[in-house]
Design brief:
This protein has 132 residues and is an alpha+beta fold. The chain has a single domain (4-123), classed as Nuclear Transport Factor 2, Chain: A (Roll). It is built from 3 helices and 6 strands. Strands 2-1-6-5-4-3 form a 6-stranded mixed beta sheet. A hairpin with a 5-residue loop joins strand 1 and strand 2.
Length: 132
């Protein structure tokens, strides 16, 4: 049975998903720590400001973010989330579709307030049809 903190983090993940879909920079600003380190599936490292700028400028635009397989673990002031998501959108005008797994570390910054402190995404590789 999920703990209260695990439930809260799952709700924040949904808030994050909606903010990303809407490029809601104000909501993203609240959810992301000023100390963010995020490594994307191409090995590029982004800060909070980089992320906000991508949304603010319209360079990154999501049409769909469909999460699945979410796992949440909370320990003290940190929570770790692993979630698989199918994404569709455009980056600098070029359409993309991706199946990614995100790992995010949320850090408690005040009573019942959490922010994303670190994250990483990896492309999900489909198994070969005849792989055992």
């Amino acid at each position: 049975m999920p703990t209260n903190a695990e439930h809260q983090i799952a709700e924040l993940e949904e808030t994050l998903r909606l903010a990303m879909l809407d490029s809601n920079v104000e909501a993203l600003d609240r959810l992301i720590s000023p100390d963010l380190i995020f490594t994307n599936h191409l090995g590029q490292v982004f800060s909070k400001q980089d992320d906000l700028d991508l949304h603010r400028s319209g360079i990154l635009k999501f049409q769909a973010i469909e999460p699945s397989e979410m796992r949440v673990k909370v320990g003290g002031e940190l929570a770790t989330v692993s979630v698989r998501a199918k994404l569709a959108g455009a980056f600098d005008g070029t359409p993309f579709i991706a199946d990614l797994r995100y790992t995010r570390v949320w850090r408690r910054v005040a009573d019942n307030e959490w922010q994303i402190w670190a994250g990483h995404s990896s492309a999900v590789q489909q198994p070969e049809p005849n792989a055992a």
